[in-house]
Specification:
Blueprint (H helix, E strand, L loop, with lengths): L1 H22 L4 H22 L3 H22 L5 H14 L8 H27 L1 H15 L5 H15 L4 H31 L1 E4 L9 E2 L3 E3 L2 E4 L8 H9 L5 E4 L5 H14 L8
Antiparallel strand pairs: 1-5, 2-5, 3-4
Amino acid sequence: MWLSLLIVVLFVLVIGTITDFKTREVPDWLSYGGIIAGLGLRLIWSVSSWNYIPFLEGLVGFGVFFALACALYYLGQWGGGDSKALMVIGACLGINMDFNHIVLAFVINSIWIGGVYGLVWSVILAFKNWDNFKKEFQDRLLFHGIFRMLPLAFLVVLALLSFFIAVNPVIQSFIILIAVFVPAFYYLTVFIRAVEKVAMYRFVSPDKLTEGDWIAKDIIINKKRICSPRDLGISLKQISQLKKLKVKRILIKVGIPFVPALLLAYLFTLFFGNPLFWLV
């Protein structure tokens, strides 16, 4: 039964990755089907073994991942498809108190693989829009003026102090790490904001809108707000209104397809397990 649950997750993530790349959407039938299949298989597992634990673990996993998915969605970090895929994983893999459980390894791998994936995707977008990106990046640095030099100054001061003041080698390494992280984080933030500005916004006609698209600016017709970024995704009713009002174009924000990152994290987990164990 466990193998069947692993296969359900793999199927959902593979199909979800394909559709996410093609249409930037994950079909509802795939997500809801995965949740039903996961909980259904766990129910059969519990009944056949006369043990309520497998089904309970699935319910807990679904509940925890549902809460996490909702938080990411309502904070505007993820789209609905990504969030539903996460719920499928929770329902199928479940959650228990075992430190060796696959779901803990998956969460850890999702964090670092998702970060690397997002950075690589952003670099590709920067090169594809190089002229606009270069100008936007420089403008943002100039806007910060002399303050942009503070992170580098922080790096130099801490690095010098770590070499001229006798401290424990471990503390010295920690100071150097912080000194590198602060300016790196600053320039990475500027980089991401510049990429977002030049590559993640585009105008589309109402005919090209799909349910859940993120509206970048308020659409106000005759002093009435039709839709806005606060809606956390446009509805079918709002799309219909825009068409009736003959709005020509709408600015939307295009996110990074994240289901592929979940697939990579899942495959890495299946083949290599929890990276924390490498440190033990």
